Amino acid sequence: MMSVEIHGLNIAIGGKPIVTDVDLSIADGERVGLIGSSGSGKSMIAKSLLGLLPREAVLSGTITMGETAILSGETAESRHGQEDDSGSDEERGAADRHHVAGERRVATSGHDSAAYADEHTLADLRGRYVGTVFQNPAHALNPVMTVAQQIALPLRLHYDLTKAERAERVNTMLDKVGLDRDVAGTYPHELSGGQQQRVGIATALITSPRFIIADEPTTALDSITQRQIVDLLTSLVDDAGASMLFITHDFSVLARATTRCYVLDAGRVVESGPTADLLAAPTTPQAQRLVAAAQTLTLHTPKEDSHE
Predict the structure, then answer these.
(1) For residue 21, what is the DSSP state?
(2) CATH number listed for the domain at residues 4-294
(3) Per residue in 234-258, pLDDT tens?
(4) What distance in Å separates the CA atoms of residue 50 and residue 199, rounded to the nearest whole number?
(5) What is the pLDDT of residue 294?
(6) pLDDT given at position 298
């Protein structure tokens, strides 16, 4: 398990405030939601947890994961664009997709008032202890790697295992996410969206991380597949005893995935509390709008049989 604490987080890019004075906490084994409309700053908070903000970002505040200080408020020189040079060019490219699809991996952001931990610490956290499930699995997965290669990549980068040991773990994870082992030799474009996201979940969980960041993991999926993916992810997280931050713009998804949540608007937390309470009686206009949108299509219904 891993607790997460964010205090006084501020992020600005190009002089424009993106996140303002955000406090957020996740207890050991807790599933917490972060909900807001597009552009509210949700994904920037997720990237700040991983040390993956754009190099031009200016930030302050503190972030702690477990006993590790990820971001401290102490003044320090920024290390623009420092990258981890371990592994082959192909593996580093695939690792970048695993960590942040379509964006280069940055160790620290440009700032005068806060400093990230060193890159070795951040890389170890991202590889071993923190797993990330992304919004669009088609973009997050490497198109030239097979499913087995993709899922095994974190093991190759961070653990000294034999090829047979990696293959065994990959097969076990395929079983857990409900995919046939025959899928191991296929490529992402040969899979449905739901199957691709199951591969993304398997990749995120292959190292048995203590903390999961799910950044809009169901947005690109149809409603029935959304339910299946949410139920699968929450079940695996609970079975592993891990903590999770689930990011979305949809309260109907959040109700199924979390027990407590924060409502974000224009980079600020405007409301927080038990997810069921906020869904039943939101008190701020921002939360009321999100709840009204969720009521048009809810996932909080019995499962339906479907084939991906």
Answers:
(1) E
(2) 3.40.50.300
(3) 999 999 999 999 999 988 889 899 9
(4) 21
(5) 77
(6) 52
- In the numeric block, which tokens belong to residue 126? 């991202």
Chain centroid to CA 159: 21
Q: Which one, of 246, 223, 237, 238, lies nearest residue 300 by Cα?
A: 223
End-to-end CA distance of the chain: 32
The pTM is what? Answer: 0.83
Q: Minimal CA–CA distance to 134: which of 66, 35, 43?
A: 43
Asked if 186 contacts 148 with a C-beta cutoff of 8 angstroms, the reply is no
Round to whole Å and give the CA distance between 18 and 173.
37
pLDDT at 186: 98
Q: Which residue has the tokens 């580093």?
A: 92
Question: Vertex 240, ends 135 and 234: CA angle to 5°?
Answer: 40
Low-confidence ranges of the chain (pLDDT < 50): 74-86, 88-90, 92-93, 95-112, 299-308
Residue 246's pLDDT is: 98
**In the numeric block, which tokens belong to residue 72?**
């401290």
Contact assessment for residue 299 and residue 253, using Cβ atoms and an 8 Å cutoff: yes
Cross-sheet strand order for the sheet of 268-274: 130-133, 211-215, 243-248, 31-35, 260-265, 268-274
Torsions phi, psi for 276 (to 5 deg):
-60, -40
Distance CA 53, CA 49 (A): 9
85-94 as b/e: b if 16+ CB within 10 A: eeeeeebbeb
Phi and psi torsions of 72, nearest 5°: -115, 155
